[in-house]
Amino acid sequence: MSITALRRLILIGLLLAIGLGLSLASPSFLKLDNLMTLLQEASQTGIVAVGFTLVLITAGIDMSIGAVIAITAMICANFLTYTHIPAFAFIPVALGAGCLVGLFNGFFITRFKLPEFIVTLASRGILAGLALLIAVKDADGFVSNVFIQDPVYLGFGGTVGPFYIITIVFLVLAVLVQFFLKRTRSGTNIYATGANPTAARLSGINTDKTIFAVYMFSGFCASLSSIFLSARMMTAMPEFGIGSEMDVIAAVVIGGTPFTGGIGDIWGTVIGTVFLAMIKNGILKLGISPYIQPIVIGGIIVVVVVVDVWYKGFAERLARNRARRRTAEQDRAAA
Amino acid sequence: MAENSDASEEVLLDCRKICKSYNGPMVLSDVDFSMKRGEIHALVGENGAGKSTLIKIITGVTGRNSGTMVFEGKEIGHDHSRTGAQGLGIAVIYQELSLIHGMTVAQNMFLTKEPRMPVLGIINIRRMNSLAQAMIDRYGFNLKATDVIDGLSIGQRQTVEILKALNGKASLMIMDEPTSSLTSAESAQLFGIIRQLKADGISVLYISHRMEEVFDLSDRVTVLRDGRLVEVLEKERIHPNEIIRLMIGRCLDEKDSKCVMERKGGEVVLDVHGLSSEGKFSDISLQLHAGEVLGIGGLVGSGRTELVRAIYGIDAHDSGSISFQGKPWTPGVSQSIRGGFGFVPEERRLQGIMGGISITGNIGITNLDSIAGKGFVSDRKELALSRKAVGLLNIKPAEPSLPVGNLSGGNQQKVVVGKWLIRDLRLLIVDEPTVGIDIGAKEEMYQTIARLASEGVSVILVSSDLPELTRLSDRILVLRKGRIVKEFAEGAVTEEDVLRASSGILEGGAA
Amino acid sequence: MNLTAAKARQLLKDLRLFFVLILLMAVLSVLSPRFLTLGNLSNVLWSVCIIGIMCSGFIYAPITGGIDLSVGSMAALAGIIANVLMNQVGIPWVPALVITLACGMFIGFINGIVTTKFGVPAFIVTMAAKTYLFGIAMLVSNGDMITIMKPKGFLAIGVGKLFGLPIPIYIMVAVIVASHILLKHTVFGRKAIAVGANEVAAKLSGVDPDRTRIMAYVLSATAATVAGIVMASLTQQAYAANAGGYELDVITAVVVGGTSLMGGSGSVAGALIGAVMVGFINNGLNLLNMPSSFHPLVTGVVILLALLLNQGGKMPKFILSMRKRLGDPGK
Amino acid sequence: QTWKIGYLPSTVGQALTKAWGTGIDTTLKAAGNVQLQALDAQMKAETQVSMMDDFINQGYNLIILQPIDAAALTASVKKAESKGIPVITLNTDTLAPHFACVTMDDYGAGYLVGESIGKTLKGAGNVALIQSPPGALAGVEREKGFRASMAKLYPNIKIVGAQNGEWNKDKAIAIMNSFMQVNSQLDAVFAVNDNMAEGAAIAAESAGRLKNIMIWGFNGQMSTLAQIESGKVFGTAYTNAYDQGAIAAKLALEALKAGTKTFAKTQVVTVKPFLATKETVGQIPAASRW
Ligand SMILES: Nc1ncnc2c1ncn2[C@@H]1O[C@H](COP(=O)(O)OP(=O)(O)OP(=O)(O)O)[C@@H](O)[C@H]1O
Ligand SMILES: Nc1ncnc2c1ncn2[C@@H]1O[C@H](COP(=O)(O)OP(=O)(O)OP(=O)(O)O)[C@@H](O)[C@H]1O
Ligand SMILES: [Mg+2]
Ligand SMILES: [Mg+2]
User: What domains does chain B contain, in order, with CATH numbers?
Assistant: First the structure.
């Protein structure tokens, strides 16, 4: 318990140190506007990452999240262009699409025991294609991206006080899901399914149902983030989100959720997304060549994760030694 | 005997003509099996006889191909599931540990039945921990409810498994080799629990390869061989030789004969001096001669495993020195293997086997030096070698291309041991080598170890199975809290001597 | 007798993916008469050779339980390094390519060291490597899309022909065969599988997991370098953004080919079949002149179908259980 | 006072965007007092929008932007203009009015390429297209212009194939190979950028059909001009990207000096395309090749 907490603190410490460095290097980093934009960007990946974390805890992977963002955007674009259905009525439909994709993924993963990676990669391809097919077209049949003017829809891109709505939604979602993971039976089932699926089944957990649920939730989160993305951009493009799955995975893994399953939580994911958004945002302000920027970003990620992993080992050793000394003392006292 | 036959004649579970095959040969054919209310029923048979499979069918983990099952008068359909079995009140401890890593003892004990707040179904963690701790204390185990599973020893994990099964209402309790990694003290504790269950009217289905437990506990014994029912023995017919004859189809030689043969006290092969590792063991000095079997006894958590791991070179030690064949020796796994060490770890699934890989692959990987030349592996030599191991320990099915994960538990263990036995060894370290191995195979393994020793190989044997320890060892060291508290030199040692030393009764007179 | 039957069954199982490939070819040749011509098949092989070469080394990362996302950037960088050495430093092309290979191995070594010795997840290490290698490639090439005009010998690697077949196909076949032998018949191959299957057990059996893993990343980067050289020669171009995103194609090929991303099993021949399958799908769609919006969709569906067919036994079982459930009222 | 100007092309690693950058940089350097920062949006509209936000938050004085998508960047341009930051767009206009748009009329140039191919083929033959990704505006406009000229002027020329080459040279090779497989008679190929045209030329040469297939590219980057001279690529629609950058930079300086903040209407400057073929490529001086 305390090891993870301490490790978190160190990661947050590193985060603050980098933030401090950036704000020294560029005064505009600490401006409210910039911080809010940074959080907005973090939330954009963050919402997807929350759902993805659950998938990763079950030792699965969901490569379709980017394409879910695209297809959701296209569904909304169609409603906005061709119908007069109000936004609050069709948005649930669009969110349902994400869940449906999760259902599809879950079906092939559980029923046919196909590898998660390839199932979700295939649905990624299928959805990316569908997004292009249903995209709004011009008279010549070429994709033409609509400029969204629906005020209700655009409201999602707005702010409450200084905070973007997406940031608030992200934080609320994070708190709820974290609580769900740690304090409900279903949450426990997710951990058990990932840590040891055989043991989980033997203990009477319906692992298939759990897997269905996490993929559906992952799809839902991706759909949700898509609404915010198109509201922010005031348009919907069939390329939206495609390729962003790598950023999401990186954020989750940096946050301490490994691919092996059974471990991880949402706080880590929040830290991971903020961390990535911060270095990406900060790097733009250092006035360095865009050629050098990727080198610096790659370098920082490696260094931070090396420190984090080293610290984890260090803390574990520390805790073990402390426990040993304690038992040794108890023995001496008993004797 | 008498009260058993009249009061509880009621049949709790009745299985008829159960057949099962895993995409291949029949594993169970036309097996009839029944349990009465409130009886202790032992299920015995050789490794791979189909005991665990029968359990898995009863508990809804795998489906049966055909046959009927009636539980408490209700027929169980083919859609029987694990959850369904739990609902019916069938609790089980599986042969392979099924705990969730990363979770605490309490979380594991209460998995899927966590106590919840009246509103919103939120888990009440505090209540769960206190309930768990209360239960641990009631049964008198040495555990903390909030300990994470990962830090526990194998024996402790087994006790968590027992607690998990006991937690909740059950009318049938199934235990598949629950004592295989328990020391005699904990086993005795478990037997107390089992008798208590029986007194409470709960039936217990018990699988074990330790015959003395079967004789002590059971009211009835069902014997399986090669997936077929051989016989059901009523209490009065339960007799050691009879069961063994039914199990393996022949009589075993008198099993109490000591395996120590005429061995010359060879030169010192391994000399450990003042070896310490903080919190694990301290100041261990021992000498091992060529052709000697050195037994190491002790309770769970006494540091036996840590000691042999340090000698083999998996974990580093803090101080002390080791010399091997007269020269100073810096431990390290590859060094050790090159020097002619062999090492059988105590936990086969996590440390021993590569489940997804064939028997051949598992055996080949430790013997690359003898099957490969210039970096290339000879498939022919590898196959020949694995055939040899399969034959030596009678691994069933004798098909080297099968993935080890599909073998029965005992046969998996045979692979783990077998891959070392076919090597040219100088020093063999075995940590609980016969876990889950049936009595016939155990006998064969003892003979092999004795033969190796007579050929000049030194053996370090860590075992919680006291008969095994006293029978095989030339000399026994007893560890307690990481220190050597007693050395029993050659000569007659009784199991009781070892037990008393382990639990500290002889501490005053420690060597 | 029983044994030979088991062996035959095993062989059939091993060849199942190959049969799926044949089926795909049959379907495509019905759809397009141009598909089953020698010229077209050689073109398809030519077009998958970059992915195929990458697969040959990449596969060791997943077999040992890791992943290497940096292969695309590595390939792009290799082309740029080779061009700098040949056309700016002026080294003859053969030694220049040897030096390029050495650079690739070194980068793979770094990836391996950081994952094993520092214990950082391979995904993070290689994703960071993908990022910074791209940056280095941009920096070295000054962001230019460089056209490589010489030397002739180097350019022949990509577009030259031998007995009517493009040379890259020979290179691909050579590295695939070498990798197959490495995996199936050498000590290293056994160790790689063992480390992926159960690291602890492998370690207790005398395998050095770290060294094996490092070697896996070296192999992966080396194959990516070879692919990059072939690509540079084939396209006569060195450009930092080349091969961007190829890691996904490579992973697809490898996983379709039966390699588990969880480690412990893998098939080089399967990976090649996977790559060729994807190549066939793309080629078929091009031959049919299917609008490009359909490409990802059809590819996704066909891959899923191929895997289902390859799964074989599971499907009838599923259908059976469905029928049982439907036809078993009252239960 | 030092002015901070942001340059935000779709991606920095392309000959065209680099040449713009050079044009902008040299012009601004001559004016002094200007600090130019380029960022790489890596062809992703989302990234480009973030980077616009970043320029705005940092208080840049002016932004030169090549929108990846007209609709997607409209909100960002609006935001910048509302904060008093003039925006100059390159090639792609947005729906929001801003200071200026320096464009090279993709549609018109595509139309010209079509006209030229039709003329060379004397109004009959088989033509294939190597397209851009479906959503990519510049490529789509070029294709539209090309198709329009075909439909209007040369109804007897058949467009026998159109496939997406993803701007990519090795994809173009594979696509060209399949075109040649299916069509034993193929007279011309129009690739919507030079990189893909070069790929098509490699494939055609390897198949020994370069002589019979006329390959057209678009942009007029230096390497393609050289290939036109050596006869591998037939022609391309060249624009002087240096000039285009320089024009944008001059407009930028104007805006900054005048200090104007609001613009009711976008000022559009169109750079004329030039069809470079073997005959005309010599007219492009070395200094204007990028
Ligand atoms: N998942 C599986 N796939 C294929 N075969 C299996 C599988 N599980 C068990 N078997 C086979 O079924 C047979 C019976 O195995 P089972 O585990 O029931 O034996 P057991 O009596 O419990 O033996 P042990 O005493 O060694 O635990 C063995 O031959 C084994 O190889
Ligand atoms: N009370 C305890 N609390 C937590 N961990 C313990 C406790 N006792 C022992 N352990 C851990 O369990 C392991 C027990 O040590 P070890 O395996 O050496 O004992 P052993 O004598 O071999 O017992 P076993 O019979 O279980 O193999 C060690 O890793 C130790 O850290
Ligand atoms: Mg068993
Ligand atoms: Mg032990």
Answer: 252-340+427-506 (3.40.50.300), 348-423 (no CATH)
